[in-house]
């Protein structure tokens, strides 16, 4: 739950603040009862001797033999879900509101106002994707140095200024320059941050909300755009410039409030002060439970603030499972690139006005939030990932087939059918958070997981380089060729989800065979090295 903090990493005065929180509360250990949650109930590494051997000298908040009830743990999760997680959702809401406004601006004749075509928009989107992706890789590493509670609000403040600067664009060159300054790095930092507060079995559903709120932000952005774009001519500014200005101002305000001294806590022991309240969220015992339950879920999180090492880089590069997740991301999300940029424009071709077209982008995004959360909640409930991913990818495939094969006549009655087809495509159960949670569960050390988080967000944006070229001006307005390409990518994604599940099942079977062949001395050695080996250990069980 909290990022376990080694004493030597605490800033001046923080160690005293942490220690004083324990001095204020008398900690009473609970007696053993049938409700006690034992260490191995949630951990993926099934060896109690290994877990008990972990030293609490590195992290005084981790108590190896601590016992606690389900009610105590549920209370901690409830506090996190009502105090911490909503603010994290606010940051991602603002992020996607700023990222979606480009599609709204394009529908308001941004290209024509600046003197370029759809192809220039595609080029700008490709540049954006490259720089955003690179920032994701570097941002994941940097946030481990400066801490996510600092990096997230700092990044928000920067992209808020960049969003406002879009109102200064005067020509094609300005468009390409400003759009290249991106928000990259904040998403992997958020994934790392949430992983320090939630167990792996709790993360997928919350990631579904994380990306689901992005869909709601896209819906709100569409509704805001339908109003703000009507400010055309006020103070001599185009409507789309007003859109960028308002979104940017909102972002800067939220960024300042998010700074770790005001709201976003560094860890569970430092939740007092700022706009968080005069009292800490947790008492001393709850802080210990918060940290201990996370370490029991994944022993490598005992030193959650450790930095990335070259050994982690080598381990990540040679992990075939990680490459599978990156392929699923880059291929499966490619069709969302043209849809995200041109959805209002596509709806506009169904003979709707620009204001109605932007408003009609709201229902698909809201529906996708609902389908995604329910879809991933069920995946968490049954503890299955692969077939759920296949289901989501198949839904998207069916939607693209409908959009490609339906008649393109925009006469009365037909345009409603076309809108329904676009609705099906846009509200598919978003598989990206499921893929990230699956990857996180099956990744080893903290350093490797940090690189994996940056890499998967890299893949989730680099596809924009080729995805942005799918819809070409010569293919408008029906985009038959583009939709055919989307069908190919969606079908490939279905196969990749199947392949990833098969790979993990085979790895589990292989580990069982190797374990059976080991002698007692070899088994003891493997148990002692399990934390360092992570998912390379034969004791590691992959989620499939």
TrEMBL record:
Annotated Pfam families = MFS_1
Cite the entry's keywords alphabetically.
Answer: Membrane, Transmembrane, Transmembrane helix, Transport
Transmembrane region(s): 126-146, 175-195, 207-230, 242-262, 418-438, 450-471, 483-504
Q: Which GO terms describe its cellular component?
A: membrane
- Annotated region (Disordered) at 1-31
Where does this protein chiefly localize?
membrane
Where in or outside the cell it occurs: the entry states: Membrane
Enumerate the InterPro entries for this protein. MFS (IPR011701), MFS_trans_sf (IPR036259)
Name this polypeptide is given: MFS general substrate transporter
What is the organism field in this record?
A: Lentinula raphanica
């Amino acid at each position: 739950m909290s990022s376990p903090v080694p004493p030597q990493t605490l800033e001046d005065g923080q160690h005293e603040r942490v220690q004083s929180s324990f001095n204020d509360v008398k900690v009473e250990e609970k007696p053993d009862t049938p409700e006690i949650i034992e260490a191995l109930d949630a951990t993926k590494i099934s060896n109690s001797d290994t877990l008990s051997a972990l030293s609490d000298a590195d992290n005084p908040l981790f108590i190896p033999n601590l016992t606690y009830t389900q009610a105590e743990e549920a209370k901690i999760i409830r506090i996190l879900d009502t105090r911490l997680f909503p603010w994290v959702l606010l940051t991602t809401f603002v992020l996607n509101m700023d990222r979606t406004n480009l599609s709204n601006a394009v529908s308001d004749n941004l290209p024509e106002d600046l003197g370029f075509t759809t192809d220039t928009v595609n080029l700008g989107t490709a540049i954006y994707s490259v720089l955003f992706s690179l920032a994701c890789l570097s941002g994941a590493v940097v946030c481990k140095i400066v801490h996510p509670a600092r990096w997230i609000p700092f990044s928000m403040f920067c992209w808020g200024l960049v969003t406002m600067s879009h109102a200064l664009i005067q020509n094609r060159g300005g468009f390409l320059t400003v759009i290249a300054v991106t928000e990259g790095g904040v998403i992997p930092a958020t994934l790392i941050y949430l992983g320090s507060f939630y167990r792996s079995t709790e993360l997928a559903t919350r990631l579904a909300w994380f990306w689901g709120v992005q869909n709601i932000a896209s819906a709100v952005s569409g509704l805001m755009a339908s109003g703000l774009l009507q400010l055309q001519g006020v103070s001599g500014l185009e409507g789309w410039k007003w859109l960028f200005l308002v979104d940017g101002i909102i972002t800067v305000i939220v960024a300042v409030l998010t700074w770790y001294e005001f709201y976003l806590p560094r860890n569970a022991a430092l939740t007092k002060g700022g706009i968080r309240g005069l009292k800490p969220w947790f008492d001393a015992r709850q802080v210990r439970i918060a940290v201990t339950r996370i370490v029991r879920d994944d022993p490598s999180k005992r030193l959650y603030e450790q930095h990335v090492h070259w050994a982690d880089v080598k381990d990540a590069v040679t992990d075939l499972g990680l490459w599978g997740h990156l392929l699923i991301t880059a291929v499966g999300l490619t069709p969302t690139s043209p849809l995200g940029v041109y959805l209002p424009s596509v709806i506009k071709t169904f003979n709707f006005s620009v204001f109605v077209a932007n408003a009609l982008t709201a229902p698909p995004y809201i529906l996708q939030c609902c389908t995604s959360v329910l879809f991933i909640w069920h995946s968490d409930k049954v503890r299955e990932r692969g077939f759920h991913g296949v289901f989501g990818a198949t839904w998207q495939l069916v939607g693209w087939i409908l959009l490609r094969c339906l008649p393109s006549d925009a006469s009365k009655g037909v345009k409603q059918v076309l809108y329904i087809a676009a609705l099906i495509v846009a509200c598919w159960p978003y598989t990206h958070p499921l893929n990230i949670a699956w990857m996180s569960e099956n990744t080893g050390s903290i350093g490797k997981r940090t690189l994996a988080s940056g890499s998967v967000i890299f893949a989730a944006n680099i596809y924009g380089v080729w995805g942005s070229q799918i819809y070409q001006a010569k293919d408008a307005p029906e985009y038959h060729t583009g939709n055919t390409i989307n069908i190919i990518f969606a079908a490939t994604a279905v196969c990749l989800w199947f392949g990833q599940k098969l790979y993990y099942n085979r790895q589990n079977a292989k580990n069982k065979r190797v374990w059976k062949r080991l002698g007692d001395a070899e088994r003891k050695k493997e148990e002692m090295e399990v934390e360092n080996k992570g998912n390379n250990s034969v004791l590691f069980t992959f989620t499939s």
